[in-house]
Design a protein that fits this description.
Blueprint: H1 3-7, E1 8-12, H2 16-25, H3 28-36, H4 46-57, H5 68-73, H6 77-80, H7 92-104, H8 107-119, E2 126-136, E3 167-176, E4 179-186, H9 192-211, E5 216-219, H10 226-232, E6 237-242, H11 247-255, E7 262-263, E8 269-278, E9 281-290, H12 291-320, H13 327-338, E10 344-357, E11 371-383, H14 385-394, E12 397-402, H15 412-420, H16 423-432, H17 447-478, E13 482-483, E14 489-490, H18 495-501, E15 506-510, E16 513-518, H19 522-531, H20 533-538
Parallel strand pairs: 2-5, 5-6
Antiparallel strand pairs: 1-15, 2-3, 3-4, 6-12, 7-8, 8-9, 9-12, 10-11, 13-14, 15-16
Helix pairs in contact: 2-17, 3-4, 4-7, 4-17, 7-17, 8-17
Length: 542
């Protein structure tokens, strides 16, 4: 290898140029530095450290923070963050100090300010709030130190991950459509029922100031309790699912005549609404019938009925071999057995009288020996059609409630649609828990740093969502399309698919001088032109 060859090197830019430009557009560095301050002795500001961690998060390389220099070593830091910075500048001390400062400065408040400025014209009408658990390996005992007042307990609790053997903490996420507007860390044993009430009482007014008075909160059925309804309804409007176990819900379902349901513009759904009072609050209950849910639940019910039939026949067979001292004893025993069945009952019951030896020993009874009269049952089980029909009538139905009584302000169909969009929060959690994301960085033993790191996870979700919004808006405006994974044209590509298109784009260097950006094919070039001139400039392909 000659000297000229030795001077050439390359670094991977891939899709991270898009991520870096979104960070610049929303002024992420400046917002963080404004909140945390800038120490003139630091070469890397806290804002720049946060951007570096967001890049790590959206690099999809599954490297925890302690391998952060290894991640940056192959990246063009001067393009992605700032000229004059090197990989060595982003050591674990820099990252740790940044996380500590973020925690002390209230990451929830910082996050709310950043997203309120970043979203500009984006935004809808509903706040979708939900929680998920983050399981952790290791002991995670609290460590005394500068952050020993951290109000976070990593402990055992109800695991939504299905890992009750592991300690955990809880993440609460509020989404406006697919855009995160709030993120918070809770104790591992936190209760949704209490948290949904507390988040509104503590942060509801701040969120309302930022996003407007007309926002409606959306929760799953964990919210629905008399206390929550009573304490929240005076100041906020809400939509939630009513638990099917509630006696009032059972009463409404049983009285419902299916012929009263009306079709909606939402394919596969019928509904009817009524006014009820619960927790001292008048509210609109919308009984919804879903054709898909009914078909799915009907199959499950049929399997359950068949399983019970097999169980009932087995129990009757055993009963037929059991002697009873009287017909009354046999009848009582069979009725007790029948009570364990929900969809069947005993039919064709007969008793056969037999005589058996009253004493010990085997063989034929002797002449004059006392014989005992016993009775053996013979019966079958038949389906309880009224019970099955009653159960079938409940299938495919659920109740969505809202304290907005005026259907002109919020129609029944809008209420149902808003509840169905609760999936936005679930999608946000899937993003945060993606094994390619940096949730594995939760090795941190310092609870304060975990709280700050979760906030950065929320920022990564925000950047990801903003990039997707920006590209889809450009496609809608120009009438253009992009090929999806199956090479079919689409106007709504996922940003993850777009990121895949940029794989293999590298920066060529001679010594420390950037010479050229390589491997920009027509499709990435088209995407950059749609995103705008600043994005094209990052990739030097204009």
């Amino acid at each position: 290898m000659n000297l000229a060859e030795a001077e050439y090197s390359s670094k991977n830019l891939d899709h991270l140029g898009i991520v870096a430009e979104v960070c610049r557009e929303i002024g992420l560095v400046e917002e963080i530095d404004r909140a945390l301050g800038v120490d003139p002795r630091q070469k890397v500001t806290c804002g720049e450290a946060v951007v570096a961690m967001v890049l790590n998060a959206l690099g999809f390389v599954d490297r925890p923070l302690y391998l952060f220099p290894e991640f940056l070593e192959t990246k063009p830091v001067e393009i992605l963050i700032r000229a004059g910075l090197n990989v060595e500048d982003f050591n674990d001390d820099v990252l740790g100090r940044t996380l500590d400062k973020l925690y002390r400065a209230s990451p929830e408040s910082i996050f709310m300010r950043i997203v309120a400025k970043a979203y500009k014209g984006y935004g809808g009408r509903f706040f979708h709030n939900d929680t998920t658990s983050m399981s952790l390996q290791g002991d995670y005992e609290h460590e005394e130190g500068d952050l020993d007042a951290v109000p976070l307990e990593i402990t055992y609790g109800y695991s939504k991950d299905g890992r009750p053997d592991l300690k955990q903490f809880i993440i609460s996420l509020v989404m406006d459509g697919d855009l995160p507007v709030f993120i918070q860390v809770l104790n591992g044993n936190a209760s949704d029922k209490n948290h949904f009430r507390e988040i509104v009482k503590r942060y509801g007014s701040s969120l309302r100031e930022m996003w407007g008075e007309d926002r409606i909160w959306v929760w799953d059925s964990a919210f629905y309790s008399e206390r929550n309804v009573e304490e929240i309804s005076g100041s906020y409007r809400w939509i939630t699912r009513v638990p099917e176990t509630l006696s009032k819900a059972k009463e409404v379902m049983e009285k419902l005549d299916g012929k009263m349901l009306r079709k909606t513009s939402i394919a596969g759904y019928q509904l009817i609404s009524t006014i009820v009072e619960y927790g001292g609050v008048k509210q609109r209950w919308i009984v919804v019938f879903s054709e898909k849910a009914f078909a799915r639940e009907r199959v499950a019910l049929e399997k359950r009925i068949e399983k019970e039939r097999a169980k009932a026949e087995k129990e009757l067979w055993h009963a037929s071999h059991q002697p009873f001292h009287s017909r009354e004893d046999g009848l009582h025993a069979l009725r007790a057995t029948e009570k364990g069945w929900k969809f069947h009952h005993v039919a064709g019951l007969e008793f056969e009288e037999r005589r058996k030896k009253n004493g010990e020993g085997r063989g034929r009874p002797k002449t004059g020996e006392d014989l005992e009269h016993v009775y053996y049952s013979k019966a079958s089980c038949v389906a309880d059609e009224p019970a099955i029909e009653k159960e079938l009538l409940r299938r495919g139905k659920f109740i969505v409630a809202s304290n907005e009584l005026d259907s002109e302000k919020l129609s029944d169909e809008e209420t149902l649609t808003a509840y169905k969009e609760q999936q936005y929060a679930e999608r946000g959690f899937r993003f945060l828990k993606d094994p390619l994301f940096f949730a594995h960085s939760m090795f941190l033993k310092n609870e304060g740093r975990i709280i700050a790191l979760v906030m950065i996870m929320g920022l990564a979700l925000m950047i990801y969502s903003l990039a997707e919004h920006k590209l889809r808006a450009a496609l809608a405006e120009t009438g253009e399309t992009l090929p999806d994974q199956r090479n079919k044209p689409t106007k709504s590509p996922t940003i993850r698919r777009v990121f895949q298109v940029f794989e293999g784009i590298t920066v060529l260097y001679i010594g420390s001088k950037k010479v050229k950006i390589l491997n920009i094919k027509p499709l990435p070039a088209k995407i950059l032109s749609l995103l705008g001139s600043e994005y094209t400039r990052v990739y030097d392909c204009g």
